[in-house]
DNA sequence: CGGCACATTAAGTATATACATATTACCCAG
DNA sequence: CTGGGTAATATGTATATACTTAATGTGCCG
């Protein structure tokens, strides 16, 4: 431990390039360096911090990846104009969500059907050829109350193992996570009035406001599954957060 | 242009460390390297790619930041267990949203009031001391139709300039973007049935399902503004995407 | 046989160096 | 004054090197 480290205090045990990131981020967030402002050149910062250009470069590259600055050769680095607000939406599994509320979770399959893909199915899964699909509908309970109604389509061409699975006891969401570890997903979130089917499934009056989350999961370009989750509207909310520094960590 | 570059084809003009990121990402996404799998050591990868350890390190650091792998000294790097799905929700300004639909955008202020913060206001903005706030309600049109109803609170302690602004012609959202360039935000998304006020503002029958987005924007710990946007439910949907590679880019 | 010092290993950080690339600025010829 | 070629410049990428740090394993000695 050198003397300078002891003096530094709080910021100790942070790498230099991370400290540079933090300080620049602070200046941008505080408005000291407003959008459009040109930050010092790498060599200038290197001199200020008494380090090499490579170290500064590492910091600047990180800031550029998180979208706080834009870098132009020969011109320098500039604070970016805030465009669209983007926020990170954490979509946890329903079981965790329910247990997070302190309720006991229960799963109940309502129906399961295997069939040749209809034109509706093909639209939802972006299928060109006519393959087979499995459709599962299920209920997720929080305590005695229905929490969420699930309607799911699984593309059998992508997940042939789904033909053997009844989903009587396992929720298709967590089952699929075992089969297909990582994927890209596309979500649509909307509010709808409950139709008669949904109303009876959720035991609410027809016409009630419900939050609907539709997710389409793909892997390497082909769609695996499409799911529509219908929540009892007033009792459920999604939370999304935006913090510039963690952008990296989606 | 060397011969090898010409042969490479599609992947040309990608930096080596980015190519390494892509290939490893592919193996993880395809399931070839399942969660928990230990990837080759930096030195092994360096040899495979015929490059230095630094280059591999850059790639691995990026994968670690995006949350695809976890790195442990002396042990190696491991594919991470899939936790919660997180998706990036792009929340653009309403004007852009409307124009993206090919409709003409129009803004109309409904009311504006400056007052000492009530206890409700203080709860929404996390105010401890009793300061002043401005409350603005406004309508956003898409063509002839109301698209969205806005109810906004602005913390005057954080943005004193708001006292002088009437918001008769400028939407508070875009105005605030000028004043407070960068910030963190927290969103809640839910479905509600329109009460009488909302119903008359949006000219829909009371009880209709509406999508509500509530956003609380903070800077350096203090809350700037709270806004509730009420959309005509069935006509509007939010879209969120998850792609592992871009996690960095919020 | 148990515990602790020490060596080993893999990643983390930082540096100097080198060359590539994109873009701007400048200067000179027409 | 204008256009185009060229030099200067800031970032981008890659390398070899060196030292640090944390975790794991090993072996020695009481």
TrEMBL record, chains A, B:
Tree of life domain: Bacteria
GO terms assigned for molecular function: DNA binding; DNA-binding transcription factor activity
Keyword Transcription included in the entry's annotation: yes
InterPro entries, A to Z: Bact_HTH_transcr_reg (IPR050679), Chorismate_lyase_/UTRA_dom_sf (IPR028978), His_ut_repres (IPR010248), Tscrpt_reg_HTH_GntR (IPR000524), UTRA (IPR011663), WH-like_DNA-bd_sf (IPR036388), WH_DNA-bd_sf (IPR036390)
Alphabetical UniProt keywords: DNA-binding, Transcription, Transcription regulation
Span of domain HTH gntR-type: 14-82
Any Pfam family the entry gives: GntR
A single GO BP: L-histidine metabolic process
Name this polypeptide is given: Histidine utilization repressor
Gene: hutC
